[in-house]
Fold this protein.
Amino acid sequence: PAPSEHCTGNLCTLDLASATSDFHAITLVPKPGAAIGSSGTVTVSGTASDATVTGDHLTLTNGKTQLKVSASAEQLDQVPGDMLTFPLDVWNNGQLPAAKGVQLRIDTTAGLHLQGSWANCRDVPAGGRGGHIVHETLCDFPTPVEPGRQYALSSPLRVKVGDEAWRDKIFYEFTPLTSAAPANGPGTPLS
């Protein structure tokens, strides 16, 4: 831990009985000279006279995966029936690979309709992401994304403008894949 009023050496102590908040943040930093990719374990424990405290262990790794996605130009003045294309690139600006691969999330509002279905993609309920999102597709790419490398989709995303379109949007994001989920799309995989 970084030196603070609560931390000395490798031990941080908080007296929650006298605390004015029920939220406490402790900053953890790599030891000087720690290699990128090295990891360590944090143990959280506690005691209380009137409760049972369950401890926990957390493993932290030095470095991070930092995925970036190419921005597409705004496509204004489209009319129903038009087809929009979004050629996407993803790259990793971090120090660590996305070792298990990446997941692409594609969200669209009511007037935009994603065209195509791929073996490594699945439609999921769009609930919980805001009332304006009506369609969500997740695509898993179980190939590591290495730091400093750029990757392009095998084909651009194609989105049709529907008859009900009015100020619609598409949102897309790549995140590190933690575990592949079952896909439900027919066809060949999007790579």
